[in-house]
């Protein structure tokens, strides 16, 4: 326990784990959590891939809505909150800003809001996130350079594809309905990155607000017309 920070509030302790086919030690990690906190309420995420941000995972969303300042969230390791350090960093900072304590089983680290030691630990997490990002960019550039040395392979890899306008329109409609990125990707049968690109284009064009108003007006008008038809049929 970090003596430079206030002790964790043990009145409300919850734990979060994500079940993954690649996660071979899942049961062992759950056992370790329950051994440390026998009466803990466990939230288990299933059927969600690791690249999905914690804020877009259904079980985590439900958990986050219940968490209040002073509560403690237990995870086996911070990787439960994100696939990479950047996602972990963002989610952890959001929880800490909310006043939630974070406790890991692995290495027994305590992240306490408004704590000097927590600030140090979070700087380390952020440093790893930035290093990870630089490494990915460097690796991508190295790959592009290798392809540029082979013009034919470069053309094959980066000739691009035409945008699927029908699918993009469906994605836009689902986004305007307020659905999460993961739900939109699942319903449109596409990737999260494609959904993000469509959302970014809508935002850059400044059309999101206007489209939402038009969608709402169309939806309300459609419902009113249907209601009028039903009344006419009754008469």
From TrEMBL:
Among SMART domains, the record links this protein to: Resolvase
Q: What is this protein called?
A: Putative recombinase
Question: Mind giving the lineage of the organism this protein is from?
Answer: Bacteria, Pseudomonadati, Pseudomonadota, Gammaproteobacteria, Vibrionales
Q: Which organism is it from?
A: Photobacterium profundum 3TCK
Q: List each copy of the Resolvase/invertase-type recombinase catalytic domain by range.
A: 12-151
- What GO annotations for molecular function exist for this entry? DNA binding; DNA strand exchange activity
């Amino acid at each position: 326990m970090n003596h430079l920070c206030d002790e964790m509030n043990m009145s409300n302790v919850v734990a979060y784990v994500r079940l993954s086919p690649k996660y071979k030690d899942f049961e062992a990690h759950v056992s370790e959590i329950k051994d440390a906190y026998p009466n803990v309420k466990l939230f288990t995420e299933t059927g969600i891939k690791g690249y999905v941000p914690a804020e877009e995972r259904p079980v985590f969303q439900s958990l986050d809505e219940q968490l209040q300042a002073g509560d403690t969230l237990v995870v086996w390791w911070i990787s439960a909150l994100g696939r990479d350090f950047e996602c972990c960093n963002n989610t952890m900072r959001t929880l800490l800003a909310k006043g939630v304590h974070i406790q890991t089983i692995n290495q027994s680290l305590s992240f306490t809001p408004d704590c000097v030691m927590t600030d140090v630990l979070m700087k380390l997490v952020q440093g790893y996130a930035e290093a990870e990002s630089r490494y990915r960019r460097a690796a991508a550039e190295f790959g592009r350079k290798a392809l540029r040395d082979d013009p034919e392979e470069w053309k094959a890899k980066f000739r691009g594809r035409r945008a699927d306008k029908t699918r993009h329109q469906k994605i836009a409609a689902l986004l305007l309905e307020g659905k999460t990125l993961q739900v939109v990707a699942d319903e449109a049968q596409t990737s999260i990155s494609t959904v993000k690109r469509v959302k970014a284009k809508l935002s850059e064009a400044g059309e999101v607000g206007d489209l939402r108003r038009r969608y709402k007006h169309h939806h309300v008008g459609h419902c009113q017309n249907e209601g009028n038809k039903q009344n006419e049929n009754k008469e």
